[in-house]
């Protein structure tokens, strides 16, 4: 079993400027570092080096995605706007997606990094892979950037391997605390891509990710949203993976599984209100890996999305990558007992209601 890894120092040079969390530092907000900063990402890679986890990985060199590749999803008008802003002083790609001069080139390298990881998996050079890219991608829509995402990295990678390598069905399981709206939009009328998003109810984007949004036309039944109540912890997520993700993905029988990987469902995240520890992320990864081995020769691609607690995120990400490699825990997480000892990890009735509703959607997927 070999695990690929994509990262590049240029990802850390994507500059979101100063802000108050994610709002412009105007009025009474004293300027501070934007919440989507390089720090958590850089610390993931640093911890991998300190623990030597990185020595177990096959390093995959990222490349810039081409215009042809990004135009498979994004509109020409949107790309022209991004290029113009990037050539000048930067700007905002749409909704809460600031970038500095040259940011478009870094977004191309981010998307291209995920494409390269997908290629390596499908070409059999690695079994699975983690693409530690930045800027993230799962909120980017065809004609607008949202939620710090400029280009839809996972969408572009899926289309790429479907078009160039004859990959058929792809299952997406997005556990970022925010709704994977871009991925949903891209495949909403498509029965070849199953999109599952497990997120905090109505967190971001506003009014997005309802359980009633199940796909349209040929895609009807192939989009499952699991909008969990704030405060959900270990057992709520475990129930989602056992009752929704596992049966849905098994019924769908994908050729490849893609996981937009956000650590903002972690218990210390400033933007999410969930309870997960690194142990839950490790358990989720084991579940996804088992499904990939059972259904599609182990072909499993994780692509990095959110996670804004710089000290905690590296332990969650390292747990995921250790599990992908099949290694025993190396990076000892000093926060895990603290988080797991907190209240709120049981499965509560108000959580179970929504999970059971989503389980019905999973049961309707045709085998
Ligand atoms: Zn997020």
Would you kindly provide a written description of the structure presented here, covering whatever features stand out?
The protein has 367 residues and is α/β, with parallel strands linked by helices. It has a single domain (3-18, 34-363), classed as Histone deacetylase domain (Arginase, Chain A). It is built from eleven helices and 14 strands. It has helices at 39-51, 67-70, 76-87, 103-122, 153-165, 181-186, 234-252, 278-296, 313-325, 336-340, 349-363, and strands spanning 3-6, 18-19, 32-33, 58-59, 90-92, 94-95, 98-100, 128-131, 145-146, 170-174, 193-200, 223-228, 256-261, 300-304. The strands form four sheets. An eight-stranded parallel beta sheet has the order 4-1-8-14-13-10-11-12, sandwiched between helices. It has a two-stranded antiparallel ribbon with strand order 2-3. Strands 5-7 form a two-stranded antiparallel ribbon. The site of zinc ion has 7 residues, from loops.
